[in-house]
Specification:
The structure is a single chain. By secondary structure, this protein is an alpha/beta fold. The protein is built from 13 helices and 12 strands. It has helices at 11-26, 30-36, 85-102, 122-136, 155-167, 197-212, 229-239, 263-273, 330-339, 346-349, 352-366, 372-397, 401-420, and strands spanning 41-50, 56-67, 73-79, 108-113, 145-149, 221-225, 244-250, 253-256, 283-285, 297-300, 319-321, 342-344. Strand 6 (221-225), helix 7 and strand 7 (244-250) form a beta-alpha-beta unit. Helix 6 (197-212) packs across helix 7, helix 6 (197-212) crosses helix 12 and helix 12 (372-397) packs across helix 13. The N and C termini lie far apart (47 Å). It binds glutamic acid. Glutamic acid binds next to strand 3 and helix 11. The site of glutamic acid has 12 residues, from strand 3 and helix 11.
Length: 424
């Protein structure tokens, strides 16, 4: 790293820098480059919701549709105070790359509401979710743009969105629109295996990395940041190989135990207490010491911008497996490379969620129900095929895995644009 402080960039500027770097290396067609460097549609809705005490509060919701050359727009909705147009643009763009790498027929989108959901009652959250879905109206649709869960959203919220959407279409169209959202509860048309899918995908990628490096996972230690759906499932599944979870950080603090933390029990604890702080049998350590813990694997599964110029140098791990979207910025990537730390980038590593969303969507369209074995084995095939494509690109172009993942995505999109041409 040069002595001069690297410039700070917004999340979306980071995506564009990652994109331009890969586009230069693979010599992406300039017309395709200019198309993909912009989002297609950016929808911002302000909508009123009645609170439990009778007051009306205004909310701002976003849906950014980056590109749909490969299929309908697809991507999650997050409820978080940090949600803003720049972040949603970045997340939507990553979804385009993610679907392209996974080789599923989707484009990229993302959305959300700028709120802290912990400040609202369940009844208020229901009205907020429904009113947001209503405000989005025909900007979403089962063959057009298909939301899913993301940070602080879940199957229940998808069920409310589904019900609201179905209530706005003619009765004859209701059942034909059950695939307007994915990540639904099973009873409302969801798929088995979707809830754990992102963590399962992270685990499959880590297994493959271990195989490739002759690394014994049963003797591994790992640390996890964020213990929501992705962090907890990744931890539980990696721990089933015998690997030892030694530290976890979330918004409530950092817990550590050199003897290992029970990933299953911690998940139950977090479901009840809403955070990892105070988990019995662990010691509380300072948040800023978390990244310097010596372990084999680090799974960031929280928000963007965790591994930066300031923080990445602290890492003492062999592998970063990105469960979160965008945890590492461009400066962080440089340091990972310098330190020789392997990286399984977000657009590959966390693609299990959208891959099983695709399976849910297919099951809905065909009125089928697959069993867990079928879902898991199809997920394994898809994500490992993506892993092998990224690995091959990294070798062919002699680049880091993030750049390789971008190259795989851009190469696929370039072919489609060239074949179809530009209207008119
Ligand atoms: N929110 C998840 C992601 O970032 C899942 C998206 C989906 O299933 O559409 O990949």
């Amino acid at each position: 790293m040069s002595a001069a402080k690297a410039e700070k960039h917004s999340v979306y500027q980071n995506v564009i820098r990652q994109f331009n770097n890969a586009a230069d290396i693979m010599k992406l067609d300039p017309d395709v480059r200019s198309i993909l460097s912009k989002t297609t549609n950016e929808i911002i809705v302000n909508f009123p919701v009645k609170m439990d005490d009778g007051r009306v509060e205004m909310f701002t919701g976003y849906r950014v549709q980056h590109n749909n050359a490969l299929g309908p727009y697809k991507g999650g909705l997050r409820f978080h105070p940090n949600v803003n147009i720049d972040e949603v643009r970045a997340l939507a763009t990553w979804m385009t790359w993610k679907s392209a790498i996974a080789d599923i027929p989707y484009g990229g989108a993302k959305g959300g509401i700028q709120i802290d959901p912990s400040k609202y009652s369940q009844a208020e959250l229901e009205r907020i979710s429904r009113r947001f879905a209503y405000a989005l109206g025909s900007n979403i649709g089962p063959e057009y743009d298909i939301p899913a869960p993301d940070v602080n959203t879940n199957g229940q919220i998808m069920a409310w969105i589904l019900d609201t959407f179905q209530s706005t279409v003619p009765p004859q169209m209701r059942h034909a629109s059950v695939h307007v959202v994915t990540g639904k509860p099973i009873e409302a048309g969801g798929s088995v295996g979707r809830n754990k899918a992102t963590g399962q995908g992270v685990c499959f990628c880590i297994e493959q990395w271990a195989k490739d490096h002759n690394f014994d996972l049963s003797k591994a230690t790992f640390i996890v940041q964020g213990y929501g759906n992705v962090g907890s499932w990744s931890a539980k599944l990696v721990a089933r190989h015998g690997a030892k979870l030694i530290a976890v950080q979330d918004h409530t603090g950092t817990i550590y135990s050199k003897n290992g933390i029970d990933a299953e029990k911690l998940a139950d604890y977090v479901a009840e207490k809403r955070g990892v702080a105070g988990f019995p049998g662990t010691e509380k350590i300072d948040d800023k010491d978390f990244l310097s813990i010596e372990a084999d694997i680090f799974i960031p599964a929280a928000l963007e911008g965790q591994l930066t110029e300031e923080t990445t140098g602290k890492l003492k791990v062999k592998l970063v497996a990105e469960g979160a979207n965008g945890p590492t910025d461009v400066n962080g990537d440089k340091i990972l490379k310098e330190k020789g730390i392997d990286l399984i980038p977000d657009v590959l590593c966390n693609s299990g969620g959208v891959i099983v969303s695709y399976f849910e969507w297919l099951q809905n369209k065909r009125s089928e129900f697959w069993d867990l074995e079928e879902v898991d084995s199809k997920l394994y095939k898809k994500i490992i095929a993506g892993y092998q494509r990224v690995k091959a690109a990294a070798e062919k172009y002699n680049v880091d895995w993030r750049t390789a993942a971008y190259i795989v995505a851009l190469a696929r999109l370039e072919i489609v644009f060239k074949e179809r041409g530009i209207f008119p």
